[in-house]
Amino acid sequence: MANKFKAPAIDQLTFDTAPNRLTLLRMIAVPAVVYFLSWKTWNGDVTACVVFCLAAITDWFDGYLARATKAITIYGKLMDPLADKFLVVAVLIMLQNLGRIDPYVVMVLICREMGITSLRALASAEGVIIAAGSGGKWKAALQMIGIPFLIIDAPFFGLVQCKLIGTVLIYVSIFLSLTSALTYALDFFRGLREKLKAKQQKS
User: Fold this and answer.
1) Backbone angle region of 130, left / alpha / beta, with phi > 0 → left and psi within -120 to 50 → alpha
2) What is the pTM of this model?
3) Which residues are CB-neighbours of 164 under 8 A, at least 6 positions away?
4) Which stretches within 69-161 are classed as H helix?
5) 56: which residues sit within 8 A by CB, 6+ positions away?
6) pLDDT tens per residue, range 42-100
7) 3 state SS of 155
8) Is 70 helix (H, G, I), strand (E, B) or coil?
9) What are the pLDDT digits (tens) for 153-180?
10) What's the angle, vertex CA 131, arms to CA 111 and CA 61, rounded to 5?
11) Going by C-beta distance under 8 Å and a sequence separation of 6 or more, which residues neighbour residue 127?
């Protein structure tokens, strides 16, 4: 009886699934957040913050839905990480333009993402699997939490500026970004070395 209620597996080349729709909404949210930030007003900042937070929440829900409904597709695997990077990078650049984050911080974070994306592409081409570590996940979580504080440039409960809280969280995320990037690189070369060694032994 239990099997009767299990969701049927979806073809991996199917695009129109609930998780993919959520991911697509996250992509659509990117220009919306940038647009509202460009108002340079309190109302614009609040609206941008709300849209960003809603978009960030979809990052958890699309993965949960994909696993729960067995709707893990090729499109989802491609779009999900891209949507995250589009959202974070675009908003960070806009916040730098507004003077709410140091440009060097933005450059480090963007270069890290470019480096890891290139490393993963190379690993895939070489047949080496690099598992996502906890450092990378915490980095992403801290950025999703810290960015709304940078968007709302106001006192937090009258105690401390939101910008300070956001800056601290982003700096912690930078530390995790660099350490997780080092871990990814070491795992890649370790995996590549083991693969080449196994290949030599077979030959």
Assistant:
1) beta
2) 0.86
3) none
4) 74-97, 103-126, 134-151
5) 87, 144
6) 999 999 999 999 999 988 888 777 778 887 888 878 888 889 999 999 999 999 999 99
7) strand
8) coil
9) 787 767 778 999 999 999 999 999 999 9
10) 85
11) 195
